[in-house]
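Example 3.2
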Amino acid sequence: FRIMAGKVKWVTDIEKSVLINNFEKRGWIQVAENEDWNFYWMSVQTIRNVFSVETGYRLSDDQIVNHFPNHYELTRKDLMVKNIKRYRKELEKEGSPLAEKDENGKYIYLDFVPVTFMLPADYNLFVEEFRKNPSSTWIMKPCGKAQGKGIFLINKLSQIKKWSRDSKTSSFVSQSSKEAYVISLYINNPLLIGGKKFDLRLYVLVSTYRPLRCYMYKLGFCRFCTVKYTPSTSELDNMFVHLTNVAIQKHGDDYNHIHGGKWTVSNLRLYLESTRGKEVTNKLFDEIHWIIVQSLKAVAPVMNNDKHCFECYGYDIIIDDKLKPWLIEVNASPSLTSSTANDRILKYNLINDTLNIAVPNGEIPDCKWNKSPPKEVLGNYEVLYDEEMAQSDGSERGRPGQTTGLKGSRARDPGKPVLTTWK
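Structure, written as tokens:
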């Protein structure tokens, strides 16, 4: 006589059919948030309350949520950069070969985030950098906003002064009333396809930070601008030229509602293999995977690795015309709105595969399990990095393009010296 295992009770404050259909397909039961729940797919606003000091929620072993308490260490534009800078310094102190620099003092491997300053805090540092290269374009983004809101491009100091000076004191305004911004060197030589700029949206699932275990979703996509790209400064305020956010592009006259200006990653791969060759295409994708793992390693020490949590991040990567990938930002709540039919299917499958890893067998969760699911349940995910595995089988090598503990990545460069283990 076995007591029937109970059904998972779920709550969400994000009313999206791709979520709800997945819960219902599993026969899970919807409850209200003030009832006993096992699985809560929540917005980033809600996670703040759940883990805030005031409410001091105690989650029990049969409850899991879809964010880490301080995910913003990776998903806020300013904190991500700060953590990556700290990570580089630490690797440098340890004398890690990863922190190697070229003759101009630039990181050879760890230079994967555009030069970035926080405003207002780093205003003077920014000005110094701007004057070194006065013909460059910079992109300003509010730290806490998404979907391309509040973003603008500048190529003259006066444009930022206008924004920053308080008329009375004419000193840089830094009250909380003025939002914090990041300002980054704009990648003005993006790889163009059909004359248009695009970026990559890749989904990365982290089941635990210590040890780090993460998965890459195979079905990422490219988001194209609707208007041909020009670095011409006369078009600096045409966001249809510069920003790939669907939230912006869908208002463009040339937006295509059938494919939504999107291409699959596998399309991109085929296109690059045929135009640039297989070798460089493989190298590009290895580097993309490598920088994602590095960004996660950079935040792992500060992340509150709560055993009730997992997270599916939306990574935004831009590729320049030298086929160098740049990490632009990481999103904590990648959009689950579907702009097209294909998009809807992709996101439904993304949630399905995510749940199969996060909630084994669709049964009531137990936070004590070791979070390493069998290969059969991964669906379209593949293991990107598994710290325990990398340490036990000595595949912890280090440089992009070598087998960097990245599963499925081919060791294609036997000629290079193998780097010693790095943690």
